[in-house]
Amino acid sequence: MTRALTLGIATGLLLAFVVLPLAVLLGALAVDPASGLHALLHPLNQRAAWNTVKLAAGVLAFTLVVGVPLGWIVGRTDLPGRPQWRALCTVPYVVPPYVTAIAWITLLNPTNGWANQVLGAFGLPAFDIYTLPGMTWVLGLALTPFVMLATADALARMDASLEEQARIAGAGPWRTLRTVTLPMATPGIAAGASFVLAYASAAFGVPYLLASGTAQPDYVLTTRIYQALDLDPATGRPVAVALSLVLLAIGIGLPALGRFVQGRRQYTTVTGKATRAAPFALGRARPLALLFTAGYAGLAVGLPLLTIVVTSLMRNLGLGFTADNWTLKNYAAVLFERSDTLGALWHSTILAAGAATAAVVLGGLVAWMARRTHTPGRGALAALARLPYAIPGTVLALALILTFSQEVRLILANRVTFVLALSDTLWMLGLAYLVKYLAFPVGNAEAGLQALHPSLEESAHMAGAGWGTTMRRITLPLLAGNLVAAWFLVFMPAFSEVTMSILLSGPDTRVVGTLLFDLQTYGDPPAAAVLAVIVTALVLGGNAALRTVSRGKVGL
Amino acid sequence: MADVKLNALHKRYGTNHVVRGLDLHIRDGEVMCLLGPSGCGKTTTLRMIAGLERCSEGQVAIGGETVSGPGTFVPPERRHLGMVFQTYAVWPHMDVLGNVTFPLQVAGVPPAEAKTRARTALEQVQLTGLDARYPHELSGGQQQRVALARALVAEPRVLLLDEPLSNLDARLREEMRDEIRRLVKRLGVTVVLVTHDQEEALGVSDRVAVMDRGVIQQVDTPEGLYERPKNALVARFVGTLNELAGEREAAGVRIGDVVVPARPTEEAPASGPCRLGFRPENVKLAETGIAATVIGRTYLGHTVRYRVAVGDEPLVIDGPPTLGAEAAVHLQIRDGLILGDGTP
I want to staple B83 with a disulfide (CB 3.0 to 4.6 A). Which of A145, A318, B160, B258 is the partner? Predict the structure, then answer.
């Protein structure tokens, strides 16, 4: 009875908070196709769609050119300090890209960017960060670890005898790399690449910040949707709905195109005793590899984080590097004095913790249902729980607005009434985080359950334990590691989330991400930098905790 | 074609001494098998011949040319060898023809000629008409044929086989074993084969080197190993061996009041306690002889295999299907081996 009730409630929540909003979003277009079509034909919107494709393609090219060699260098060569370089180059994986974006604004804004001043001193033209190439640069640096890690993992999984065979057949080390090693790693790299495409086309924070400093910004779909809703919610909605569907199509279509090109080749090999591959001897190429790796680490991690820290310690950015411009008062203000920053930090903390806890409970139940019961539709339910992660945050937030901006009344048998009034409340934000990141606990719990033989639970039943007792005493303790890891995986991005928050939060429900954007765009960059330092410290610290909890399996 | 000479070969991984002073001459055109339990250093030795591992000490010479030795190391791609891995290592991103032409492409053979030669190699391993298939579309046996064709296509000086049959099912294994033997003999290529399976070793090879803990125990023809093992270790590893404790006599070993005729092995003591070793087929049931009791029975079709006990020492013998449990029998043993007294 407990079992049926618990699982029933889990299913109901999933249907209400995932299926219903997406149905409402699709329905909204069907109700008013004329204004949707009108929106699609507007030149500004067409340019935004085209910019999204250009941005995604540019970022993909950047991450492939940088990430594949980097993955090989940190994954398979005899580079000195290889594990340390790998960890360092993975940092952008966890730091939100908007953190590096504000650093690059400080460095490369066309009026007084620090790096631009250096370029100017050498007589070189300034680089304008407030452009599509600027967005490509920042997102490319931020997303390179996805391709790097995909490449390194694909190389690590590869049976060394495939390469040894090429050596025996007469190919030298470099030829083996070109003809066997890299082609073999292609499917893994392609998986990383399709993630980059999806991420870059859905990116909001970086394009938004890099549109904020210029009168004629390059809009992409996400920022256009935000702008439409922000200017006039009533007339903006049909436009936003139409554009979200285009965004959805691009986010799903581009990666699918990649899989189609990939074709019918499958990369499974006979298993046997797979030998560990010896590291590739770089020889004379070693300084070049070191320079490449250090160059990436410097531009993607060292320089931006240094810039953020330096900015957070300045009274006034305009005064530059003078002795009396250094101060700690920004930290004191943000952490102890200002009500807006304290409120936002508090909101983000409770929202991220609440969403993480709820997601672990709900995701765990969905995964258990998928793996341990014969309920019809259990697989579809688990797939549904993973779906929102693949949906651009902007689209998801819009769907939630459309569904829950009015009161929703559920009347059962004319007596019991549930009233759901979420608009402009913290609940709305918590719900968005829960739905978006539910994929992590579902995935982690499913992986855990797959590794756990059902007989462990069955013997508890044989010993007389009911479903609740078995879950509490057997299943949960065995899955604890996976679930705790999942909790952190939800908490960290939820704490720094901005894409959905900016659409869903009101004046009384600001969170760290939205406040940081406000401070950055409306004149208090040092305070924004303090928040960025806090966010960075938190995700890096959380990641270290995650590593400890999962014994190195999850995390950097 | 070429011979392979291993001279005082050593391999250490840190403090782990895997190969300890190996001397072996594999003659031109010979099929040599390295046989031994897992961890005996046989695969490491093969990989040192291939150039996939560097030797810690000693030399490897192929066709008179030193390819590994003090100050010399020829990388694998310049040794002109062919190799079939246990996992086959057929490249999954290339089709069958792509896999087999690869060694020729690398050697700079013109594409048209490479294709013709690859097709010939595929014909030799009886794999025709599957040129455009990808490895995942092939069975395990077919993948192995691709690996074999690829190893042979560039006419290597030596063919190296690492447990080539261990991933095949029993029926296919026997078929491939005969086929590999026929093929390499027809081509006259020198072969070094590594296996832990004695049937595979005896069935394919001209000579077998039995290895244990990094040392070669004996190198001989299959018949020689089976009939004239140098010590108990070789005798136990090749075929089934029965053993009984006894006393060394001039003509053999005394078990109770019976003297069994036996030949001394290298470890046989001049006198005193020793062990008698013998094969199941060299035991006959008779009216007189060593007294024994039947303790178990396995019906094998062509014969019945009994477990019998002499005192508290268990033996395996073949006999007529009529013996019951606990039956008292007498054993007549011939062609015994005199082994050490069991203290290693």
Answer: B160
